[in-house]
Amino acid sequence: MCVLCSDFITQVHWTDQKKDSSSGEVIVGEGLRERQRDRLKRVKLCNEILALYRLKIRDWNGSKFVLEDAKGNSRIVHDLGILWNDVQELIGTAINPLDEYLISTMKSKKG
Fold first, then answer.
1. 72: left (phi over 0), alpha (psi -120 to 50) or beta
2. Which run of H or E residues covers position 58?
3. Which of 29, 52, 71, 104 has the most CB atoms lying inside 10 A of its own CB?
């Protein structure tokens, strides 16, 4: 159990699971480096999108995320499945993933 948030960390959200994992359970030490590396890649990608909204996310102890705005407000995000709901609450408006500006900005960054 995580001492700070009183949460069991044995179950992993599907966004943090390896492609060949079917159980969704984490065995301490098994594949930890690879899992952390993959998690940090997802954080980097999320930050590229979140920068458009003046937000950033960081990994917290390999089990949660911390979402922060430019004003110093922050909140704990339990998994990437609920990240966008928390983003919308923090900025106070709905996000449209098909927004032309967002798509064109992401395309220009990619290539």
1. left
2. strand 55-60
3. 52
* pLDDT reading at 1 higher than 50: no
- Look up residue 90 and give its two tokens: 């923090």
The pLDDT of residue 48 is above 60: yes
Strand order in the sheet with 64-69: 55-60, 64-69, 74-77
Residue 35, helix vs strand vs coil: helix
Cβ atoms of 4 and 31 within 8 Å: the answer is: no
How much is the mean pLDDT over the chain? 80
Query: Quick check: 27 pLDDT over 80?
Result: no
